[in-house]
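Bumping my old thread because nobody answered last time. Still need a sequence for this structure:
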């Protein structure tokens, strides 16, 4: 059965192309993702020969020493800037067993077929290859969401796309066939003077609405949402908006990896260990 497409692929590519020109003015969220990925990678004591940077933006992620890097982005402008390949994350033009490291930051939350993309990433990895990913998680933008719900209470429209929470992210790793899957999250709070500055950031980081069938914003809706957003301001007039970053870690299966003990193979009971 085909996966239903909720995102407009053409609009997503266009938004990425528009964001490319001034990307560095709005890259703070991806910078936090890359920092988290780099910290996780630093704890892995092994060499990597071939790395895929999936959703590369401007190619700022520093590859491991000596690794050859392939960069892929859905946007033509980003791909062209780094000498990479333009392709969607759920339609990877790479052969199986091509990489021993795949890194993806800031794109998987707006992919039509996330399970399919993760499965393709796992297949692109050699046995015992490592995947490190990050994207905006399900509890993000709670204030902006509430503001638009209030502004359009009579006729609500889909202004924000569905987001994956950390528990579902872990399930997706298992479903895609990753070994030793780990999903965790971190929160980043940004304080905005008004809703318009937040919208500028979302557009600048290519994270605005690309749902199929989206309804254009009217001036009345924007004004009402901005008023509702301002109602959440702290005493200094700024609104604290929360971004959740979900981090993914998974390994391509290998016979060399540790395996969980078989069910019923324990030689001592938990009650005995606790002294009961």
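Sorry it took so long. Here it is:
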């Amino acid at each position: 059965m085909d996966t239903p497409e909720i995102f407009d692929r053409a609009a997503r590519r266009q938004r990425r192309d528009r964001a490319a020109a001034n990307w560095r003015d709005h890259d703070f969220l991806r910078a936090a993702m890359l920092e988290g990925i780099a910290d996780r990678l630093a704890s892995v004591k092994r060499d990597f020969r071939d790395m895929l940077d999936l959703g590369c933006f401007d190619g700022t992620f520093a590859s491991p020493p000596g690794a050859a890097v392939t960069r892929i982005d859905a946007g033509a402008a980003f791909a062209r800037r780094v000498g990479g390949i333009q392709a969607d994350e759920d339609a990877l033009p790479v052969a199986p067993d091509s990489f021993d490291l795949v890194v993806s930051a800031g794109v998987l939350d707006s992919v039509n077929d996330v399970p399919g993309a993760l499965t393709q990433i796992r297949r692109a990895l050699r046995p015992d290859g490592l995947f490190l990913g990050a994207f905006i998680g399900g509890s993000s933008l709670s204030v902006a969401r509430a503001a638009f719900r209030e502004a359009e209470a009579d006729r609500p429209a889909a202004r924000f796309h569905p987001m994956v929470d950390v528990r579902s992210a872990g399930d997706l790793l298992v479903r895609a066939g990753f070994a030793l899957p780990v999903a965790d999250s971190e929160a980043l709070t940004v304080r905005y003077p008004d809703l318009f500055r937040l919208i500028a950031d979302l557009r600048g980081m290519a994270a605005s609405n690309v749902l199929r069938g989206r309804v254009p914003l009217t001036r009345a809706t924007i004004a009402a949402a901005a008023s509702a957003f301002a109602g959440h301001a702290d005493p200094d007039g700024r609104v604290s908006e929360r971004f959740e970053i979900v981090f993914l870690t998974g390994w391509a299966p290998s016979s060399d990896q540790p395996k969980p003990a078989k069910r019923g193979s324990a030689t001592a009971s938990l009650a005995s260990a606790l002294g009961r």
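The chain has a mean pLDDT of 93. Let me know if any region looks off to you.
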